[in-house]
Amino acid sequence: MEFSAATEQAPTDWQQWVGRNIAVRDGGIELASEPSLTVDQLSPSARDITVDGDGTLYTLRESGTVYRHNERRSVEGRLWTADGGAEPRALCVVGERLYVVDEMGTLAVVSTRLRQSIGTIETGVDEPVTIAAADGRLYLLDAASGAVLRVQPDGDVETVFDSLSRPLDMTVHETGAIYVLEAHADHRPVQKQASTGELLDGRVLVGRNHRIRKRTVEEEVDPGPFPLSGFETADGDGTSVTPTRIATGSSSLLMMGSTAAGDETLVGAVDPETSAIQERHRFDDHCRAFRTPAVSTAGVSYAVTGDNDCLRLDSTDTHTRDSDDRYRGRAYRQFDAGASIQWHRLTVGYDRPTASSQLRLSYLATDEPSPLDEPLSAVTGLDESLLASAGIDTVWDLLSFDPAELAALVDKLTVGEVDDCLDAAMAAVETALSDRWQTVEPQSTDVLLSEAPGRYLMVRIELVGSPTVSPRVSSLSAFWPRQSYLQYLPEMYQDNTGSAAFLEQFLSVFGTVFTEVEREIETVTQYVDPAAAPSETLPWLADWIGADTPVDWPMAATRELVASAPQHYRKRGTREGLRERLALYLRHISSPDTHPGDRFVPAASSDRTNDLKAVDHGLCILEPPDLDGIESTPVSEAYETVLPGEQSVAVYAGPFDDHDHREAVERIIEAETPAHVRGSLVELEPEFRLGIDSFLGSTTRLAERQFELGAATLGDSAVLD
Fold first, then answer.
1. Could you tell me how far CA 674 lies from the centroid of its own chain?
2. All domains of the chain, ordered by start, with CATH?
3. How far apart, in whole angstroms, are the C-alpha atoms of residue 293 and residue 588?
4. Cα separation of 242 and 240, whole Å?
C-alpha cells in the first residue's frame, strides 16, 4: 500500500507548531523551562568569600583566618591568618596570589602555593568595601572617596572610576568591564529664609536610589542603558526590588536584592535594557557577599548571608507551570492534504523519561481551514489590512508568525501588544475546539484514525511532566489516504459494520508492519549510496569496499572519501594519490583565522591544482628530484633539511588553527606513503621567505593590483604619469 505522509522531525518543522508552555529543543518539543537556583548550605561560616578561576572557594572567617576549600574531596585547609592588627574586610584571588584588604586599606599578598605572606601593599584607601579581579588586574572599591582603584603589579594605585555616591558593591567582568552598585542620593529643591529675611535656594535629601553603574574597557562610563535603576521582577507581578549585591555571570549581570516588604532576598539576572529581573530564587535573609567564579561555565555562585552562613547556588533549569499550576504543555498543528480525504494514521516518536510523565494525543479532521467563526480582526483587535499585508489568512498563520516581525509592520504596536493578540487568538482556538477533539489512549504512539474525513487534520500534543522531567516528542507523521487490508477479504467480512470496524483495526497491525517492510525495500538502495547513506551506516559501506572512515573527519569529507575510494586505489602510494587525499580533507575543514592576504593560498587553476580550488591551507608536495633544478646552494640546502634522503617526501600545508587538523594531515601522509618512504609535514605559517619556502602558483600567488582613490600611497601603490 502507498501513502502520502507529512512528517515533523526537523527543528524548522517544530517551529511551525504553536501552543502554550512548550519549547523546541534538540530537534523536538518538550515542556518550556526557566532558569532557577538550587541552594546548598556549606559547613563553614564566613565574613567574605572569593572563588578562583578553577572554581576553588576561599573563605575569610571572623577570626581573620583564610581557608581554602576542596569541595570535590569535602576538605578544607587553613591558608593564612591575619597578624592581629587591623581587621580584614575582603579577599580576592589572582592566579597564585591571594589578596586580603583590611580596614586600613592595606593589602596583604599571600602565596596560595607556599601558604605564607609574601608582602603588603599600602593602597591609601580609607574605607574599603570589596576587592575584585579580572584579566590579571586587581580592583578595589573605596566608599570614602567614592572611587574604584586599580592596583598594579608593582604596587602603584590609580583611580579608574570615580564620582560614585555611597558605593555598596562592585563586580568586574572577565572582559574588564566594571559594575558598581551605589546608593545615589535624590534631592528635592527647596527655598529657605535667611535671618535677614532673604530667600535662599537649597535642596534636601528625600531618599537614596540604589542603581548600577558601568565602566567599559574603552574607558566609557555609563554606556548604553546604564545607569540602571527601578528594578522589578519580569514575571508579571512587577515586584519592586532594591539591589544589595551584584555579580557577573557567564552571560548576564546577576543581582541580589530585598523585596519591597523587606522580608526576602531575591536572586536573579538583570536585563540592562529594561531593568527587569528574571527571578531565580528567594530566601529569608539578607546577603553580605555575592561571588561568581571568574569563568562560571557551570552557573555556580556563592553567597554569605547576614548570619555568616555560606551558600552555594547552582544554576539549573526548571520546567514552568501552566495557568492551572500544572507542569503541562500543549502544542497544536494543522496539516493540509490539498483535498478532502480520509486520514489514515498518526505515528509519534516519543521519549518517556519517567513513569509519571505522559503524552496525550488528540485530533480533528475538517474541511474548514480555521476553527473560528469570527474574523481574526474581531478576535485579536488587529487591523484587517495589517493581516492581509503580512499574508495572514487563518488563525494558524497568525499563531505561527513571529511577534517581532509583526510588530515591525506597524509603528504603533509593541512586541508585548502583539503577544497579547496572539494569546487572545490561542484562547479563542482552545475554546472553539474544546469539545470537538477526538482523543486517544494516553501514551499511544501509533494511532489508526477513525472518522477522520476532511482536507485538514488538526493535531494536539499534550505533555505532562514534573519540575525536572519532561516527555519529549522527536517526530510525528500523519498518513493519508485511508487504506486497509480489509478490501482484500471477501465481501461477507465487509458487510457487517461492527465486525468490519474491528477487522479493519485488527488488520491495521499487520498493515503497519508490512508497510514499514515495503518502505525499507523501496529505500534499501540508499545504504549503498555514499551521498545518501545514513551517517551511522557509512562505516559499514566503507568496510564493504575496504576504505577507512576516520572518526574525526567532517561527515561531508567522509562521504567524498568513500565515494572516491575505488578510483583512489589505483593511485595509492603515488604523489598524485597523496595530493588528492590531502586536498579532499583540506577542502572540508575550517579556514585559518589569518587574513587571506597574509596566508598561503593555491593558484586559481592549472593542470596540477584543479583539486585545490577550495583549499584554504595551501598544499605543495616536494620530493628530492624537485631540487635538481635549484642552482642556489643555500636554497637547496634549506629544502634538504626536510628531505633527508632519496626515499622521502615533504608536504607543505597550513597554517592550522586547530591542532587536530594538523594531526589528521600527518595521519594521511603516514597512510598514503609507501612503507619505505619517509613522509613529513611542514606547517606553513602566515608569512614566507621569497625563494625559501614559497611556491608561486602552488602555495602563493601574485595579488591583483587595486587602486582606490583616497587610499593609494604615492610612490608605493601609485605613481605620477
1. 45
2. 4-32+331-493 (no CATH), 46-162 (2.130.10.10), 164-189+202-308 (no CATH), 529-570 (no CATH), 574-721 (no CATH)
3. 37
4. 7
Determine the residue type at 119.
Answer: G
Cα–Cα–Cα angle for 79, 82, 87, rounded to 5 degrees: 130
Give burial (CB, 10 Å; 0-12/13-18/19+) of 453. Answer: middle
Per the model's pLDDT, the better-predicted residue between 317 and 294 turns out to be 317
Question: How confident is the model over 6-53, as pLDDT tens digits?
Answer: 787 788 888 889 999 999 988 899 999 887 878 888 877 888 999 887
Res 627: pLDDT: 82
Q: CB of 539 within 8 A of CB of 553?
A: no
Instruction: Retrieve residue 640's grid coordinates.
Output: 634538504
Q: State pTM to two decimals.
A: 0.60
Taking alpha carbons only, the member of 360, 353, 357, 365 closest to residue 331 is: 360
% of the chain beyond a pLDDT of 70: 86
pLDDT of 704 reads 58
What DSSP string describes 229-287?
A: ---EESSSS--BEEEEEEEE-SSSEEEEEEETTSS-EEEEEEETTTTEEEEEEEESS-E
Query: Do 582 and 619 contact (CB within 8 A), yes or no?
Result: yes
- Supply the angle between the helices 659-672 and 575-586 in degrees, to the nearest 10: 160
Residues paired with 181 in a beta bridge: 169, 212
The pLDDT value given to residue 613: 55
Look at residue 606 in the predicted model and tell me its pLDDT: 39
The count of C-alpha atoms lying within 13 angstroms of the C-alpha of 39, restricted to the half-sphere facing its C-beta, is 14
